[in-house]
Every structure is written in C-alpha cells, then in structure tokens.
Amino acid sequence: MADAVSQCHAGGHGRFLRNLRIDFASAFHQSPFWSYQAYQKVRLQYAHSLIGPLWVTLTMAIQLIALTFLFTGLSGADLSVVAPWIAIGVIAWTFFSNSLNEAASVLLSNRGYFMEAETSIAGFVISILIKNTIIAAHHLILFAGLVVWFRLWPDTNWLWLLASIPVFFLTTASLALILAILTPRFRDLRPLTGNLLMVGFFLTPVMWRPQSLIKNEFIATFNPLTHLLAIVREPLLGHPPDQLAWVMAICLCLLSTGLAIFLLGAVRHRVTLWV
Fold first, then answer.
1. N or C: which end of the chain has fewer CB within 10 A?
2. Apex CA 146: angle with CA 142 and CA 151, to 5°?
3. Closest Cα partner for 233 from 170, 164, 169?
C-alpha cells in the first residue's frame, strides 16, 4: 500500500514537471511564431487606415488631454504634476488590463489551433504580452513628449526601473497565465475579469492621487495594484518607491508567479478537455 502511494506521488510529480517542460519548451521553440502573431495582430488591426498604428497614439493622446484637464480642474493641482501622473498611470494600466482581458479568452478564441497542434499555453500569453508591449511603446511617445515639455529629465531614480519593470511585467504575465488556464474551465471568469478590471480602474490610483483621499485611505493602501503601479511610476516622476510599495508589489509577484507555475504543471494536460 505504501509503495502504491509513493508511486502515485512520484507519478504526479513527474507529470507536473513534464507539463512544465513541454509547455515552456514549446513556447521557446515557437518564439518566432508568437512574435509574428503579435505583430500581425497590431498591423491588421489598423490595416488600410491612413496613419496605421499611430491611431493607438492619437487615441491615447486625446484621452490623456481630456483626463488631464478634467483632474486639473477637480484637484486644482499644477498641470506639470497631473499630466505625467495620469499619463504613466493610464499607459501602465492599459498594458495590464488589456493583457488580462485578452488572456481570459485567448485559448477559447484559438480553440482549433490549440486542439490540432502541440503548442504552449504560455506561448499564447507571450504573444499577448508582445502585442501589448508594441502598443505601449507607441504610447510612450506621449510620455517622452511630457518629459521634454515639463523637463522631467532622467535622474538616478530612473535606475529603479531596472527592478520595477521586470516585477510589473512578470506579475502581469503570471496573472494572465492564470486566467488563460482557468477560463476554459470556469467560463464566468471572462465577464468577471472585465468587470473586476473596470472596478479596479476606479479603485486604483491610475488617475487620482492617494493623498487626495479625504477618507477611506485604505482603498489605496491595501490595494496591491496601487503599489504595483507605484514602483513603475515613482521613479519616472523622480522619486524612489517607498518600502511598502516594494513589499506589496514583490509579494503580489511571488504569489501570482507561484500560482501560475502550479496551475500550469498541475492541469495543463486537462486544458484540451476544457476548451
């Protein structure tokens, strides 16, 4: 009996590692395909338009101008404070929320391809991240303009980005992978993800500043996404992220990464049955 139990545990452990090895190996060997797929999605989205992907930048510019003047009027803060704050927040949140929304439907929308070929769940997530990185690069043109206009020249605080950007990116990737795995099994996660991100947009200081809260400060303090944004935004504004922001952001990153790896190893072989 003891031998049977130990063999069962050994078999489960072996399958867990095999699932991880197969998925990550497939993602690596098919990396040109994921990059090409991401590029094609961006290109085809704006095919036959006059300015192509620059529509991404124009649309974001209109949104940022409107939001900046709205919150400048509401808070009375200086334009040089509000404009960079909103620009960085909206660009980072757009990358984060689009990645999660797309991950929640990526396997279902690619059901045929996933069923017919040996492919990688992580690879689909990588393609989403590459696509949204390309779009974010277009958006960064606007932030570069703000840097020049308001003279927010890079200083030593920008070195924090060497650590904060990987944490932000890995957290986004892990959460996206979790959704990509679980959504085929629990279909309600698709609309739930969209609704939670919409609520999260208002409860996270994407546009508003935490110090502007008169009461209910816990909305910002205990929201992990507040701190995930802070470790990216504060260095760009010339300030080092505080210790709480780093602790919360790293904890979120470790938890999401651990859960994503666990799910990928534990249930990858079942996902084809769910889609």
1. N
2. 150
3. 164
Alpha carbon distance 249, 122 (integer Å): 22
**Of 268, 90, 115, 99, whose CA–CA distance to 176 is shortest?**
99
The angle at the Cα of 72, spanning 68 to 76, to the nearest 5 degrees, equals 165
C-alpha to C-alpha distance for 129 and 270, rounded to whole angstroms: 24
Rounded-to-integer distance, Cα 171 and Cα 160, Å: 17
pTM: 0.90
DSSP assignment string, 199-263: HHHHHTTTSS-GGG-SS-THHHHT-HHHHHHHHHHHHHTT-PPPHHHHHHHHHHHHHHHHHHHHH
Closest CA to 165 of 224, 231, 100: 231
Question: Has residue 85 got a pLDDT over 60?
Answer: yes
What DSSP character marks residue 183?
T
Is 172:87 a contact under the CB 8 Å cutoff?
A: no
What mean pLDDT do residues 31-43 have? 85
**238 torsion bin: left (phi>0), alpha (psi -120 to 50), beta (else):** left
Cα dihedral 262→267→271→273 (10° resolution) = -170
For residue 28 the two structure tokens come to 């690596």
34: closest CA among 154, 166, 129, 149? 129
